[in-house]
Automatic annotation (TrEMBL):
It comes from the Bacteria. SMART domains: AAA (SM00382). InterPro entries: AAA+_ATPase, ABC_transp_ATP-bind, ABC_transporter-like_ATP-bd, ABC_transporter-like_CS, Oligopep_ABC_C, P-loop_NTPase. Residues 8-258, 279-527 form the ABC transporter domain. Its EC number is 3.6.3.-. Pfam families: ABC_tran, oligo_HPY. GO terms for biological process: peptide transport; transmembrane transport. The gene is gsiA_15. This is Glutathione import ATP-binding protein GsiA. GO terms for molecular function: ATP binding; ATP hydrolysis activity.
Length: 543
């Protein structure tokens, strides 16, 4: 049977880097097709070239990157031979893109409605009152409430999921034939992610679009892909039907990526029943005043509302929930980075919640945090050695001893000793997260709080960091509070799991209890929203 002509055909595309080195190409000799009515997932780690090829299709490569060879045929036209005027005429109308971070892609000075209307204005589509009617229609089409009100709202007032829906509405306003989605769900919590994936799949089916979906999440691939292309260091190493690539991967790189996908581990150590908790949280409360009504009355959000739990040495307690559930606020309360409105934080028999800062300061080194964004939390002006050794030095450890310990910790977290004299911007995201872990461990804490510490990492780097945390915790007997919105990660690493919803604990138990027999409706909703549940990565067999 003859295959239909591809909507998009990328043929032998190579994009040279402006400098030489081990790899002179960002993308090298890459070929793939996308047909109308098909979703092709491009998967790979950061630096694999997947987003680079997407930007080449849209003509959005930076000036210093130029395709050296190949063709990008869209409806028979070679996009690489089109001038900027021709590409501008196609963007939005014939092909459109959804970006990873909608807040930076949306204009903060224009309302949501104005930005969707702008797409139509640029292409002289939907004249007069039809333009506003079409904008309201698109807002409703992507599932946003009260389009007439939302039209006049600015992007910063929307949630991450709502902003992503606005981006989708902009991309679909003129019903393009090709939609490119570049990591559009990476930063979203699991239920919002499920909604966006379902929305894209529904629209693709209804409109018969060709979709290129760039991702590093194999759960997403299993959920929506018809075909999969795997990229490594600019080279396309494997492609084929989704069922084939996911369950019978041929290339060693694909096999390694799938092996790194989080799944339930069978060796999680249960805490010994007679161990005393190192941290006992009792009826913790934190309320934020978010504004005032028109009569002057305060509007309050109960971010943490009567939360209780305990964690023992060598135990990992997972705190899961959507954005706004209160889980990160709990982490800040544990370190007393925010004021606490009620309850007790009993650490080694002392209630630190009401303790004045002067009394708590000597205990601060015992409770440390690994932050979500290691780049933002590391001082770019300081060397890695100084970043790690400053904490112990400030707590009375001689500088030479602190620096020697920093070198030991770099080795412990799997970094080369030369990292000591380098700066954070010289490392990858996964390496910076290892530096963050080393800094937290430098003070020899008894409690370690990891706040979304692997959510932004590629799947293989994520697996390495999770294994590192597990190994360090077992070796040093640290109590680990692991905050995450990724239920697959929680199932892999945690001994006990706390499910948060609107500031309250709705369920608490072992991973087996939570994931195999959830009792609360909200827990069941969270688990049902995890992408790719029908696919078990542990059952994948090398072809």
């Amino acid at each position: 049977m003859t295959q239909p002509t591809p909507l998009l055909s990328v043929q032998n595309l190579s994009i040279a880097l402006p400098r030489g080195g081990d790899r002179a190409y960002a993308v090298q000799d890459v070929s793939y097709d996308i047909r109308a009515g098909e979703i092709l997932c491009i998967v790979g780690e950061s630096g694999s070239g997947k987003s680079m090829s997407a930007n080449a299709i849209m003509g959005l490569l930076p000036d210093y990157l130029t395709p050296q060879q190949g063709r990008i045929l869209f409806r028979g036209q070679d996009l690489l031979r089109q001038d900027e005027t021709a590409l501008q005429a196609m963007r939005g109308k014939d092909m459109a893109m959804i970006f990873q971070e909608p807040l930076s892609a949306l204009n903060p000075l224009m309302t949501v409605g104005e930005q969707i209307s702008e797409v139509m204005r640029v292409h002289n589509a939907y004249p007069g009152a039809q333009r506003m009617a079409r904008t309201l229609e698109m807002l409703a089409f992507v599932g946003l409430p009260d389009p007439a009100t939302l039209y006049h709202v600015y992007p910063f007032r929307l949630s991450g999921g709502q902003r992503q829906r606005v981006m989708i509405a902009m991309a679909l306003a003129l019903e393009p034939a090709l939609l490119i989605a570049d990591e559009p769900t990476t930063a979203l919590d699991v239920t919002t992610q499920a909604q966006i994936l379902a929305l894209i799949a529904r629209i693709q089916k209804e409109k018969g679009m060709g979709v290129m979906f760039v991702t590093h999440d194999f759960g997403v691939v299993a959920e929506i892909a018809h075909r999969v292309a795997v990229m490594e260091k600019g080279i396309l190493v494997e492609q084929g039907p989704a069922e084939e690539v996911l369950n019978r991967p041929r290339h060693p790189y694909t096999q390694r990526l799938i092996a790194a996908v989080p799944h339930r581990r069978g060796d999680a150590r249960a805490a010994t029943a007679d161990e005393q908790p190192v941290l006992d949280v009792r009826d913790l409360k934190k309320t934020y005043v978010v504004g005032r009504g028109w009569l002057g009355n305060k509007r309050e959000v109960h971010a943490v509302d009567g939360v209780s739990f305990s964690v023992r040495r060598g135990e990992t307690l997972g705190i899961v929930g959507e954005s706004g559930s209160g889980k990160s606020t709990i982490g800040k309360c544990l370190l007393k980075l925010v004021s606490i409105d009620g309850g007790q934080l009993v650490f080694n028999g002392q209630d630190i919640a009401a303790m004045p800062e002067a009394r708590f300061r000597p205990l601060r080194h015992d409770i440390q945090m690994i932050f979500q964004d290691p780049y933002a939390s590391l001082n770019p002006r300081h060397t890695v050695g100084r970043i790690i050794s400053d904490g112990p030095a400030a707590n009375g450890v001689p500088r030479a001893q602190a620096e020697a310990r920093a070198r030991e910790l770099l080795s412990l977290v799997g970094l080369d000793p030369s990292a000591f004299d380098r700066y954070p911007n010289q490392f990858s995201g996964g390496q910076r997260q290892r530096i963050g872990i080393a800094r937290a461990l430098a003070l020899e804490p008894k409690v370690l709080v990891a706040d979304e510490s692997v959510s932004a990492l590629d799947v293989s780097v994520q697996a390495q960091v999770l294994q590192l945390l597990h190994d360090l915790q077992q070796r040093l007997k640290i109590a680990l509070v692991f905050i995450t919105h990724d239920l697959r990660v929680a199932a892999q690493i945690c001994n006990a799991v706390l499910v948060m919803h609107r500031g309250k604990v709705v369920e608490h138990g072992s991973p087996a209890q939570i994931f195999d027999n959830p009792q609360h409706t909200y827990t069941r909703q969270l688990i049902a929203a995890v992408p790719g549940q029908h696919w078990d990565p542990s059952h994948a067999q090398a072809a």
